[in-house]
Every structure is written in structure tokens, then in C-alpha cells.
Write a structure and sequence with these properties.
By secondary structure, the chain is of the alpha/beta class. It is 18% helix and 13% strand. The protein has a domain of 77 residues: Ribosomal Protein L15, Chain: K, domain 2. The chain is elongated, with a radius of gyration of 31 Å.
């Protein structure tokens, strides 16, 4: 094989579209740009342009920020957990963590961890290993005779 014998597979490359070469080509006259007006010309950038008036996105003040380090927890209410236990999808005798809840279909994805919230009622004695929990959820779990291990320590504000 020689360098001058190298070629791409047949049909792998296409010729570029030559626009504006007469009406018979199918891409003549307007060259695929529709018809007339500012948007048919080159160099158009009119998104947010208000005819020279100061655009609204520059008139309004900036506020707030997006914390890129914030953890995204999946919230699970106690009532939802109890429903899964009653349906037999979650075994209350074994330790329950994010992977068990995902497998049971209680949550779709684990993200940065699972946070248990106190909504609903818990009657089963469960052992939970989760990223976070609300104070009311911890109280309800311990009242039902269960235990909870929280792995992510939430920063206390003073």
C-alpha cells in the first residue's frame, strides 16, 4: 500500500453544499435562508436587542449565586418507606441504605445520598444507614424502636 492509494470508504464523505448557484441547483436565489429581512443577512445577533434601549437583562440587578459545592440529597418520607415495607419491597429486618431503596424502586437514583424526612407514619422497627435525616424523622424512627446512622454531618449555623 502506498500513500497515493489511500482513500476513505465509499460514501463516507459528502461534497459540501454549494449554495447560491442558480435556481436549478435547488439552493439558489436565497441560498437556504428563507426570504428577505434582517435574519436572512449575515452577522445578525438580535436576541435580547431592544432597538438600542438598554436591554432588560442589563437593567435588572444581579442577585444570588449558585453553590456548586451544595450536596443534592434525595428526600424520602417515612410514610413512603413504610409503604414499601408493607408491600414487601423492602425487608425491615436488614439494614436499609440508598442502594436497597433504589433496588426496591422507592427512589430513582441515589445522587449524593438519601435524606429521610418525617412525613407520614412509621410503625416498623428499621435500621437505616443514610446521608441525612430531619430531627422529626430521627425521633419517629427511635420511637418505633429502630436505629438510624447519619453519615453526613450537617453544619450547624450559629
Amino acid at each position: 500500500m502506498k500513500l497515493n492509494e489511500l482513500s476513505d470508504n465509499p460514501g463516507a464523505t459528502k461534497d459540501r453544499k454549494r449554495v447560491g448557484r442558480g435556481i436549478g441547483s435547488g439552493t439558489g436565489k436565497t441560498g437556504g435562508r428563507g426570504v428577505k429581512g434582517q435574519k436572512s443577512r449575515s452577522g445578525v445577533a438580535i436576541k435580547g436587542f431592544e432597538g438600542g434601549q438598554m436591554p432588560i437583562h442589563r437593567r435588572l440587578p444581579k442577585r444570588g449565586f449558585n453553590n456548586i459545592f451544595a450536596k443534592k440529597f434525595v428526600a424520602v418520607n417515612l410514610g413512603r418507606l413504610q409503604t414499601a415495607i408493607d408491600a414487601g419491597r423492602v425487608d425491615a429486618g436488614k439494614p436499609i441504605d440508598g442502594a436497597v431503596l433504589k433496588e426496591a424502586g422507592v427512589i430513582r437514583r441515589v445522587k449524593d445520598g438519601v435524606r429521610i424526612l418525617g412525613g407520614g407514619e412509621l410503625t416498623s422497627k428499621v435500621s437505616l444507614d443514610v446521608a441525612g435525616a430531619s430531627a422529626s424523622a430521627i425521633a419517629a424512627i427511635e420511637k418505633a424502636g429502630g436505629s438510624i446512622k447519619v453519615t453526613v454531618v450537617e453544619a450547624e449555623t450559629e
